[in-house]
Amino acid sequence: MLLWVASIAVKAMNLLDLNPNTFYQENICSVKYKAQYKVNISCNSKKYSLDISKKTKSYLDNVFNTDGSVKSYYDPFYEPHINRPFEIYPIKSHFSNNYELLIEQSVMGTGIYTAGPTTSLAIIQTLGYFEGNKFNIKSKGLLIS
Fold first, then answer.
1. Contact (CB, 8 A) for 59 and 119
2. Angle 46-40-58 (CA atoms, 0-180°, nearest 5)?
3. Can you tell me whether residue 71 is helix, strand or coil?
4. pLDDT digit string (tens) for 82-98?
5. pLDDT digits 0-9 by tens, 2-45
6. Helix (H) or strand (E) holding 46
7. How far is the C-alpha of 101 from the C-alpha of 108, rounded, in Å?
8. Rounded-to-integer distance, Cα 51 and Cα 37, Å
9. How far apart are CA 109 and CA 79, in angstroms?
């Protein structure tokens, strides 16, 4: 069953030209550390603010000063970033033959080009559908890790 679901997602992406890299480039999101152990995430018109004060002390000490301000310099390993889509799930409507796709992207608090443990801050979920060959975004939300 799982293989069948994955197969539908891949077919939908290929047939309708939804390339994860293209999706990533056309749906630009950004993430920045802010004072008082906050992370601001922007995705097009959607804006989110996360409180990450419950992350491990060692992680927070690498990015923030003891007063909660962001360090003027921190190891690039801790640069926050948003990954390309890592999961794509087809969602079938009971009332039509159409599929929607749920696309997930990780918001990471550790460097993209480094090896070692990672710190997940959140997951961006995008629900979209195809109209002809155009992929339309229906909704976008944030899951906190």
1. yes
2. 150
3. coil
4. 888 888 888 887 777 77
5. 444 444 455 455 544 566 677 777 788 899 999 999 999 998 88
6. strand 46-51
7. 22
8. 6
9. 6
The residue assigned the tokens 């959140």 is 122
Helix (H, G, I), strand (E, B) or coil at 18: coil
Q: For residue 77, is pLDDT > 70? A: yes
Amino acid occupying residue 62: N
Q: Which of 124, 109, 125 is nearest to 54 (CA)?
A: 109
Mapping DSSP to helix (H, G, I), strand (E, B) and coil, where does residue 97 land?
A: coil
Q: How far apart are CA 64 and CA 58, in angstroms?
A: 10
Beta-sheet pairing, 99-108 with 29-34: unpaired
Amino acid at 63: V
Model pTM? 0.78
**68, 70, 128 from 134: Cα distances, Å:** 44, 41, 10
Domain coordinates in residue numbering, the chain: 2-144
